[in-house]
Amino acid sequence: MTITPIEPRLSVAGQPNEAEIADLSTKGFALLINNRPEGEEPDQLGSAAEAAAAEAAGLAYLHLPVTGPGITHEDIARFREAVESAPGPVLAHCRSGTRSLTLWALSEVLAGRLRRDDLLAYGRERGFDLSGAVRWLDTHGDTPAGT
């Protein structure tokens, strides 16, 4: 698993195994967010196994499964709230890290801290393709729901 720092409080990664989860608290992480739906791939750990490994490592755990086209404003808000309220650094993961970064980047755009026009460069600088985030904004707009 490669961990990519995004912001001081957030890093993203692909699917960790149980040994890697066990090591996260020694790396300073306080919360593990799993953005993968159950059964996405046959070899993924699954939420129950991840939750147990996180608890054994002294980490908080949140399962917030999303798919790129199915991301909602609520998903984005829950992700941001989890990162901001965590008692320390957060590692969010999906299959590659892209969906986890997409949730964060969209929250930054919706909060006015990142310009829509900067999304692709923001992703490239971190080694990710955020074209899905741009497509999401094309469909859903760049203002928070209800405004």
Detail the topology: elements first, then pairings.
Layout: E1 3-7, E2 10-13, H1 18-24, E3 31-34, H2 47-56, E4 60-63, H3 73-85, E5 90-93, H4 98-110, H5 119-125, H6 131-140
Parallel strand pairs: 2-5, 3-4, 3-5
Antiparallel strand pairs: 1-2
Helix pairs in contact: 1-2, 3-4
Class per helix and strand makeup:
alpha/beta
Approximate shape: globular
Count the strands? 5
Give the ordered list of helices and strands: EEHEHEHEHHH
Helix tally equals 6
Uncertain stretches = none
Q: What is the residue-averaged pLDDT?
A: 95
How far from one another are the termini?
39 Å
Sketch the major β-sheet.
Answer: 5 strands, mixed
Rg calculated over all Cα atoms: 15 Å
* Spatial ordering of strands, largest sheet: 1-2-5-3-4
Fraction of residues in β-strands? 5-15%
Percentage of residues assigned to helices? 40-55%
In short:
It is built from six helices and five strands. By secondary structure, it is α/β, with parallel strands linked by helices. A five-stranded mixed sheet has the order 1-2-5-3-4, with helices on both faces.
